[in-house]
Amino acid sequence: MRTSTSDSAKLRALIDREAAAAGFDAVAVTRPDAIPQAPARLAEFVAAGFHGSMDWIAETLQRRADPSVLWPQVRSIIVLAMNYGPDEDPRPLLSRRDRGAVSVYARNRDYHEVMKGRLKEIAGKLASRAGGDVKVFVDTAPVMEKPLAAAAGIGWQGKHTNLVSRAHGSWLFLGSIFTTAELEPDAPETDRCGSCRACLDACPTKAFPAPYKLDARRCISYLTIENKGPIPREFRAAIGNRIYGCDDCLAACPWNKFAQAASEAKLAAREDLRAPKLTDLLALDDPAFRAFFSGSPVKRIGRDRFIRNVLVAAGNSDDICLVPQVRMLLADPSPLVRGAAVWALSRLALEEVRAAARASLAAETDEDVRAEWRAALADEMETHA
C-alpha cells in the first residue's frame, strides 16, 4: 500500500506516540528485505546442529529467514522494545547455593502476555489510520526479531547473539508489527562491541564457538528450558544453581551501565522469585508448581523439567540438608525426575548410593534412569577403590 511522504510522517508520529503510551522504550521501522544476510547465517546455524532439538527452527527455515515469505504483503516492519532490566546484578545470587537462580526475564509475568495485547492495540490504531492489513508477533512465530531490530536501529546483535542497546544494554524484550503500509525506515545501528569479549568469557558452558555464534546445545537457557530430556552430565556442575535460564552473558555486557531498571511494575521481579529456596522448590508437586508459577513463563516447561533443574542445583549445593528430599524424589513418578535425583544424591551423599541402588534398580524400567544409577555406582566404587 503506497503511502505519501506526508502521510508516512503522520503515521510514524502516531506509532511513536502510541508506543510510548503503551510502555515501550524504543520503536523503529525497517523493511522486510533489510536482513539479506539472515538466510545464509540461519542455514549455517542449522547445518551445524547448533539448534539442538529445536526442530521448529529447521522446519520454518525459509519463512524465518525472510519476512516476505512469512507474509508476502508486508511492506514495513515496526520493531518495538521493552526494557526489562533488573534492579540489581543477578550474578551474586549464583554464590548462594541453597537458592535457585531464575533468569531475570522469567521473574514475573510472561512477557508475551504483557506485550502482545499492547502491540495489538497499536496495530489496530495504525490499521484504522492507514488502512491495509497488520500482523503482530512476539517471539511466537518464525520471525528473526533480533536481526530486524538491528536493521531498524534499536541496537546491534552483540557477540552473544543478543540485541545490545546503547540506552538499555542487553535487557530488551522485542516484538514486531508487520504492516502493508510503506513507512520510512530508520537507519541501522553500528556494531559497538569492539574488542570486548566479556559476554563470551562469562559463559559457564562455553556455548560460543566464536563471536556472534551460539551453540544452543551448550547453552544453559536451552538446557534448562528447551531440552526435554536429562541434562547432559558434562554440563551439570557448570549449571550451578541456575534453575531456569541463564543471565551470565547478558549481565556481563558493559553497555548495561547505561541501562535503567525496568520502570513498569508488571516487569519487576516477584519477591518470591528473586532467590527461592531449593528446599521449597523440591517440595512442589504438579498442582503446587502450576499454582506457584501461574502467569510465569516458567510454567510452560512443566513441573518435571523444572524439578529436574532444581535437582541439578541441589546436587551442586553441598547442602546435605537436602538429602531427605532428594531421596524421596528417587521414587517420583517421572523418570526425568528420578534420574536427576540419582545424580543429586551421588553428589550430596555418595555413600548412600549403593544401598539406594539396591532398593531402586530392581524395579526401575527406564533406561535413562538405570544409566544414572550405573554412573553413580561407578563413582561410588571409584571413591572406595
How are the SSEs ordered, and which strands pair?
Layout: H1 5-21, E1 26-30, H2 38-47, H3 55-59, H4 61-65, H5 67-70, E2 76-83, E3 101-102, H6 111-130, E4 134-137, H7 145-152, E5 156-157, E6 163-164, E7 172-179, H8 198-202, H9 220-226, H10 233-239, E8 242-244, H11 248-251, H12 278-282, H13 286-292, H14 302-315, H15 323-329, H16 335-348, H17 353-360, H18 367-383
Parallel strand pairs: 3-8
Antiparallel strand pairs: 1-2, 2-7, 4-7, 5-6
How would you explain this protein's 3D organization?
This protein has 385 residues and is of the alpha+beta class. The chain folds into two domains: 1-269, no CATH class; 277-385, no CATH class. Helices cover 43% and strands 9% of the residues. The chain is built from 18 helices and eight strands. A four-stranded antiparallel sheet has the order 1-2-7-4, with helices on both faces. A two-stranded parallel ribbon has the order 3-8. It has a two-stranded antiparallel sheet with strand order 5-6. Helix 14 (302-315) runs parallel beside helix 16, helix 15 (323-329) packs antiparallel against helix 16 and helix 16 (335-348) runs parallel beside helix 18. The longest helix has 20 residues, at 111-130. It is elongated and about 80 Å long. 46% of the residues are buried.
